[in-house]
Specification:
Helix content: 40-55%
Strand content: 5-15%
Number of helices: 10
Distance between the termini: 34 Å
Number of strands: 5
Strand order of the largest sheet: 1-2-3-5-4
Structural class: alpha/beta
Radius of gyration: 18 Å
Order of helices and strands: HEEHHEHEEHHHHHH
């Protein structure tokens, strides 16, 4: 990815932040089917129920349980108040197809590791996690998807403060030539997910991963889940103003 091309794309995204609505098809799908699954609330402390879909290993279930036990209670309570649950599946494509969910991974939906589903019409909302994912990245994915849930509930994608801080950060990326300090792989990652006209909901993605970074275990975009060499501070380095707003939630 040429830096000049990426900078031009960033300029376009900056101009569009306040000029148009965010396309939210992935996290606001139109149809929700009724789930017939085994419901296994972990206990009263996490305040959010888990359902299993298919064959779920005890180790995967245990890891999710452990994450919930240590996750800030105020966020789990918020999810419960807004009718969110967790679905653990061994077949992500089945969940995607059952609910007519539009994803950015249309060619290989079965490899999607996590998704956040919000349906304002039926108030059937859930986080879904793929039990086939690498155990090393479970916490990263959970943190990230929970970030999407908070973004949805608080409508952060429409917040004037969030948009303002993001605009400042994008201006700083250009002015301080922050892209010059990144590897070609990191620049390509930014282009694919944030800084091009086809990027799927870049505001949501940035907010979700900055929230994840503030949690134990961190987020996705600076991890080896997305990069061949870990750069854990990638997101807050690029978006420091927005990160401060997310930390203060």
């Amino acid at each position: 990815m040429q830096i000049s091309s990426l900078i031009n794309s960033i300029h376009t995204i900056k101009q569009n932040i306040n000029a148009q609505s965010v396309n939210r098809s992935l996290y606001a799908a139109e149809k929700a089917d009724t789930f017939t699954r085994t419901t296994n609330p972990i206990n009263s402390k996490p305040a959010i129920a888990i359902e299993t879909d298919g064959e779920i290993s005890p180790s995967f279930y245990s890891e999710i349980s452990s994450i919930l036990q240590s996750f800030p209670k105020k966020w789990l309570d918020l999810f419960k108040q807004n009718n969110y649950k967790i679905i653990l599946t061994d077949d992500m494509k089945r969940v995607i197809d059952e609910n007519n969910i539009q994803t950015g991974n249309t060619k290989h939906p079965s490899t999607t590791m996590g998704l956040t589903y919000t349906n304002s019409k039926t108030n059937q909302n859930f986080f879904c996690f793929n039990s086939q994912m690498n155990p090393k990245f479970i916490r990263n994915v959970v943190n990230h998807e929970f970030g999407h849930g908070i973004c949805n509930i608080k409508k952060l994608y429409n917040s004037p403060v969030i948009k303002s801080e993001l605009s400042k950060d994008i201006a700083s990326i250009i002015k301080e030539r922050k892209l010059d300090k990144l590897t070609a792989e990191e620049r390509q990652l930014l282009s694919n997910y944030f800084f091009n006209k086809k990027a799927n909901m870049p505001v949501d993605e940035i907010v979700a991963d900055l929230f994840a970074y503030s949690q134990t275990g961190g987020g996705c975009y600076g991890s080896e889940l997305m990069l061949s060499k870990e750069h854990p501070d990638l997101m807050p380095t690029l978006f420091p103003n927005l990160y401060q707003q997310i930390k203060a939630l």
